[in-house]
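Form 12-C: Joint structure prediction
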Amino acid sequence: MSDARVVVAGASGFAGALAAHLVHRHPRLELAAATARADAGERLDRLYPRYRVPVELTLLDPDDPPEADAAIVAYPHGAAARVVARLMEAGQKVVDVSADFRLHDQSAYEATYGEHGAPELLGDAVYGLTELHRDDVRGARLVANPGCYPTAALLALAPLAREGLVGDVVISAASGVSGAGRVVGDRFHFVSVDENFSPYGVEGHRHLPEITQGLGELGGDGRVTFVPHLLPIDQGLMASCFVSPPSEVDAGELQELYRSTYADEPFVQVVPDAPGVREVRETNDCRVCVATDPRTGRIMTFAAIDNLWKGAAGQAIQNLNLMLGFDETEGLR
Amino acid sequence: MSDARVVVAGASGFAGALAAHLVHRHPRLELAAATARADAGERLDRLYPRYRVPVELTLLDPDDPPEADAAIVAYPHGAAARVVARLMEAGQKVVDVSADFRLHDQSAYEATYGEHGAPELLGDAVYGLTELHRDDVRGARLVANPGCYPTAALLALAPLAREGLVGDVVISAASGVSGAGRVVGDRFHFVSVDENFSPYGVEGHRHLPEITQGLGELGGDGRVTFVPHLLPIDQGLMASCFVSPPSEVDAGELQELYRSTYADEPFVQVVPDAPGVREVRETNDCRVCVATDPRTGRIMTFAAIDNLWKGAAGQAIQNLNLMLGFDETEGLR
Amino acid sequence: MSDARVVVAGASGFAGALAAHLVHRHPRLELAAATARADAGERLDRLYPRYRVPVELTLLDPDDPPEADAAIVAYPHGAAARVVARLMEAGQKVVDVSADFRLHDQSAYEATYGEHGAPELLGDAVYGLTELHRDDVRGARLVANPGCYPTAALLALAPLAREGLVGDVVISAASGVSGAGRVVGDRFHFVSVDENFSPYGVEGHRHLPEITQGLGELGGDGRVTFVPHLLPIDQGLMASCFVSPPSEVDAGELQELYRSTYADEPFVQVVPDAPGVREVRETNDCRVCVATDPRTGRIMTFAAIDNLWKGAAGQAIQNLNLMLGFDETEGLR
Amino acid sequence: MSDARVVVAGASGFAGALAAHLVHRHPRLELAAATARADAGERLDRLYPRYRVPVELTLLDPDDPPEADAAIVAYPHGAAARVVARLMEAGQKVVDVSADFRLHDQSAYEATYGEHGAPELLGDAVYGLTELHRDDVRGARLVANPGCYPTAALLALAPLAREGLVGDVVISAASGVSGAGRVVGDRFHFVSVDENFSPYGVEGHRHLPEITQGLGELGGDGRVTFVPHLLPIDQGLMASCFVSPPSEVDAGELQELYRSTYADEPFVQVVPDAPGVREVRETNDCRVCVATDPRTGRIMTFAAIDNLWKGAAGQAIQNLNLMLGFDETEGLR
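Section 2 - Result
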């Protein structure tokens, strides 16, 4: 007997498939349905053998959704909002893994992503970077699950931003290929990615407004430059952040600041040496390290996550656990 | 009949082996000897089958070096200086691929690398970032071949630095594993590197003094933060540079500045989009791209090289060509 | 409260570290000690961050072993036998992950591996390919955990061998680098393995006697050719087996034979299409597929495992579960 | 001034792009045109930056082909035959990289590939495994360039087959992803291939008839089982062949047989130890090794090639050189 039944909508994408896996193996959740569009009718364990979810993907009829207590929506941005609205009307609590409810401001959203499908819900959505908004997540009916880059960058920078130390920041980040979603095309063909490494989105990546919004709420002033790079790995994301603080900072106090900020966090570890993404592979953990550059006064902080776990489906489960009154770590160890 | 005979000393390491390959296939050079310590007696084409150099590695006796016109020394730093001195005494022109003659200031060298083995030669050494010091290289008897990170970073930043625009710079770089040399140990074991990505040398990488020296000569003021990362690839290096210029810069003029700076360079291409390291694999090319971040006024510039070619052995041949009066590109196409 | 305390001896190697991880997270086991030689004093979660085992590696004194109910010994072959003997004298049940007790015949062992350290125990050792020797494992005090290649090959071939169909077999196998253990040297340096693929042990791999012994017990006649290849991945092993059966075989009956053989096995799945090693990564599963080549009458059978899990530490836990009277799958899902 | 002008038709695929690169850099050839369908209008050096071919892809009008002396056609099978016919009518010598003219027998072709577009030319086509058919290639107007697997397998087996030793053979092969061509889809997405290894085409790969035809011509009797596997690398192919010879073979004579067979071949090297595909990366070489399994009497032979070079575009140039009366190695070193 499960405590709650959960629909995963968009279970044929990378994040959705992992969400279905995590729901399926969760001790207190039951997978009510896993839905997909093009792949409806296909078995999920044939599409993603390693996730071992023995169910057939079904088509989601938004007017007659599967009976469930909650839903994780892993649609492409733009397509998610209307489905989220219907599922909420059907009484389900929703974690939206898309970008549709991450930006509070409709015009900011539309400048980046195009017309919004359910702007009336923007006010209800809680930004689900769990460690920063845990109490709000607990009471939320709709959680906007953060993007992968914002998750790592904000966890790396939050302790500094709250102290007013983030006046100006460069975020040089890198992600494995699964972060781009199950997009088919030359760009993510094995031969394009193998033995390669390259910056992208230099002209302005769509995660930037989400990062600046997040930093702004923490007290940062938003002078952010953010450049992601594509890594020849499947899962893993590193945010390397370079902060020019307005005033000098003591190295020991800095370590203490980070340690105390995350001391009680089940999924954030402050580590003494720069972490590698391999350390967090297939986990919901974020490993953070902070250091100073005495020559320039700059603060450097690094955060490593698995982009599909803490950067997408893992954090979705973490949020869902809180929304349903469970322990936050349930099903994620 | 070759025009010049060349010894490659230290040909069992990654850079030295490639140097031996490039000398061997060079239309105007002859490989007089390829030397090694631990691997002496081994055939080079057995140690590095893909380089197809059918010679036996020999021990170098510094007191009785092989007869030759020139030498490429690819020893570890610290060990190179004394050998370089002996080869020069024997009348050979030398390109030193180690770090021993890159820093002009002996105390700066010794702070990073330990005691210097031939400080009397520091004044003779020309810093061989060819595009920046071509005329000096032409007349040099000793060229200090630049480090891989400095090569990419300085080519990315030189046009800005000369215009006085490099007041403050973050260099977030990444290199394939061969950049660390043929070092044996857990850290470069396949299982440690595979599916991983991680910053290192955060506390101060030894290429930093070389970068600040180079920027200083170009007019930069040295407020440099430099953090390298280890990539799960064998060859390839990206320097992603973030510059806060003292005054506003016009985007079009910036492109023009880069284009004109490198217009006549055979090995530097200014490209419109951020390059990938795969584009320069197994070439001596450096691909540079510049962009502005209008939100913050920052300038971003990216340079991709193959760390073993332009970042080591390729540039060594480029320099040797000039020292011997050949066309700079000979044997490198 | 745990049901049993377990020592992992040799926890600094790849298989031993995973064994320590699996014991540590096991609901009914407690990690009594994790021992190592060169790395004693080091924390296991520093050596293998991703395994999250927060203990310090200690030196094992065979004359005064840690108090425990059982031990997993992951020493190099040759070094294991004597330690196993001491731990058994101390009353511990032992799963030996080394090769020391896999071959029943002392002279066969010594022809391949050198002098045996505890030949008096050879008669007590049960060969722990769980699916083939489950009942014996249950009652065993000493289990010889199979090699990674024999595990995959024997699971692929067992249904055929029992039917007397394995008269002559070619096993062309491939393994990720972790299968070679945490051996340091040029051969497993990232740069040697990356973008490479190569046969090895062509003159006779030491897993061959183990495969022929296993096939012999199942009814095969031992005309086995076995060639492994090194894959540029960290974990994963494929055994591709080509059998020339003495008589014609019906394709449908063959599928049914495999399906019925493994129908009740928790860790073996007979799949319709050739599996990929990615499907079994970080699991204790073996995925098997069988097909016929109507042109030649040959039977082809493929088995994919994770060499560190089902091929080493995972199967060790599976065996330990049975020896301790637990459910076989405990701690392995 | 070039000696011959060459069209590369289908230059947007992996093999065609490399062919264009090799023609472009060839000392005696000029690239008359590089054509493509979907990518016409795109620059080749934008699609494949690393090949540095500064030309725009054009549409090929088969009724009005570019003026040229010869053509390399790298179309998908089925689409090539008709274009080849037109180019030949226009007086061009043609190397066809597709499968369309590899099988001499029209019905064998059509059983595997569907209707043939120019069966009247089948009699004119010379099978271009250069080392086996050099004299015929010299005089040919149409060369059918072999498939990548057949190239490696036949070079590995030819010495045995000619001696009547190939009665029964298992070919277990593995190829990098580029061997599948620039096919877009889930299967060759980075995330599908990374850390994976899997057999495919088990039910009968379309290169099998080509291998059996080739072996038959050499004296083999065609009892061939062939299974390819997909490797997580971009370029490289290994054919591991297991032969049960009808009579016993002396190990020393076997080595001598291979050595003498290939002694004068510029692109085949018989090596003492099993080669790795990394050794032949970006070369037109084939490295072959032969060994015996004294326990079973089996002969094992391994051949490593770069599937895009010797397995496609490199061998196309090798053949074209002969057809045009040049040295076979021109432009391939």
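Section 3 - Comments
Residues 148-162 of chain A form the longest helix (15 residues). The mean pLDDT of chain A is 96.
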